[in-house]
């Protein structure tokens, strides 16, 4: 018998204007999790097309384009909703609240929970340890990071540091297709970075073919994402903050991005 224990199938599809829907399917147990619920109808349609029975919704944070489909899916399908402990009151239909160090299970597969507050104060990410992939919601984007709606630059830098410790080939599933606009901004602060220039060429080619730039990898982001590089000399020079803590540099880059 082949060892299928690490095998999970991922189905990724566009939702709303620029969100991604993700279905994670374990063929052994037959369980299927939707990561967030941007669009109930589209998520159920995609599950049906794949022949997968929806059993879970795993929410990353309370924003409407991430939880807006929770109740409609729960009314139509027998799903268990998992979400962030620190935002439990704001996750519609929540069944199980999880936080840092706890584990979500899909069949026999473990996803470790990371608290990644910054975009929202209770935001969590789901890291499948065996499969080496992470669903980061709106914390980390390809060439960007989430807006600091509720948290501080220090919190976001801490989240970036957590991600940086993962294996570099870890697949990163971001919740939006923002890469080209993020990249335009990244070039404004790190335009001499050959890794960033090469990354943008690849991203443009993918988008020209109508393909997603997500998932990315931790290694690619460490080389090209200005928010993960807030401790690097070129970024410090670009914002004229040679000696300030990396979190402060990240805060300045984030302010510039907000006004870009
Ligand atoms: Zn959000």
Would you tell me which CATH topology applies?
Metallo-beta-lactamase, Chain A
Task: Give the overall form.
Answer: globular
* Oligomeric organization of the protein chains: single chain
| Helical content band | 25-40%
Count of individual domains: 1
Following the backbone from N to C, one meets helices and strands in this order, namely EEEHEHHEEEEEEEEHEHHEHHH
Ligand list: zinc ion
The beta-strand count equals: 14
Largest sheet: 6 strands, mixed
Strand content: 15-25%
Estimated structural class? alpha/beta
- Number of helical stretches of at least 4 residues: 9
Using the 3D structure, state the CATH architecture.
4-Layer Sandwich
Mean pLDDT: 96
How is the largest sheet built, in terms of strand order?
A: 1-2-3-4-5-6
Q: What value does the Rg take, in angstroms? A: 18 Å
3D architecture notes:
There is one protein chain. The chain has helices at 40-50, 64-67, 70-76, 153-164, 179-190, 194-208, 218-224, 233-238, 246-258, and strands at residues 9-15, 19-25, 32-35, 56-58, 80-84, 96-98, 103-106, 109-115, 124-128, 133-137, 140-141, 144-145, 171-174, 216-217. It has nine helices and 14 strands. Strands 1-2-3-4-5-6 form a six-stranded mixed beta sheet, with helices on one face. A six-stranded mixed beta sheet has the order 7-8-9-10-13-14. Strands 11-12 form a two-stranded antiparallel sheet. Helices cover 33% and strands 23% of the residues. By secondary structure, it is α/β, with parallel strands linked by helices. It has a single domain (9-258), classed as 4-Layer Sandwich (Metallo-beta-lactamase, Chain A). It binds zinc ion (ZN). The site of zinc ion has 5 residues, from loops.
């Amino acid at each position: 018998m082949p060892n299928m224990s690490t095998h999970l199938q991922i189905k990724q599809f566009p939702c709303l204007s620029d969100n991604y829907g993700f279905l994670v399917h374990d063929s052994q147990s037959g369980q299927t999790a939707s990561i967030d619920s941007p669009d109930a109808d589209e998520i159920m349609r995609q599950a049906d097309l794949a022949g997968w029975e929806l059993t879970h919704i795993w929410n990353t944070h309370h924003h409407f384009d991430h939880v807006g489909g929770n109740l409609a899916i729960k009314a139509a399908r027998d799903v268990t909703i998992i979400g962030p402990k620190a935002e439990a009151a704001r996750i519609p239909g929540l069944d199980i609240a999880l936080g840092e160090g706890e584990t979500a299970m899909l069949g026999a597969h473990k996803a470790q929970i990371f608290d990644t507050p910054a975009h929202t104060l209770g935001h969590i990410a789901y890291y499948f340890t065996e499969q080496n992939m992470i669903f980061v919601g709106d914390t980390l984007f390809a060439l960007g990071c989430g807006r600091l709606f509720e948290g501080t630059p220090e919190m976001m830098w801490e989240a970036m540091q957590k991600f940086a410790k993962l294996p570099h080939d870890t697949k990163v599933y971001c919740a939006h297709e923002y890469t080209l606009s993020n990249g335009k901004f990244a070039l404004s602060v790190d335009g001499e970075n050959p890794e960033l220039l090469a990354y943008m060429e690849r991203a443009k080619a993918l988008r020209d073919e109508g393909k997603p730039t997500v998932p990315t990898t931790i290694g690619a982001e460490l080389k090209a994402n200005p928010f993960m590089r807030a401790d690097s000399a070129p970024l410090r020079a670009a914002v004229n903050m040679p000696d300030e803590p990396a979190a402060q540099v990240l805060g300045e880059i984030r302010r510039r991005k907000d006004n870009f």
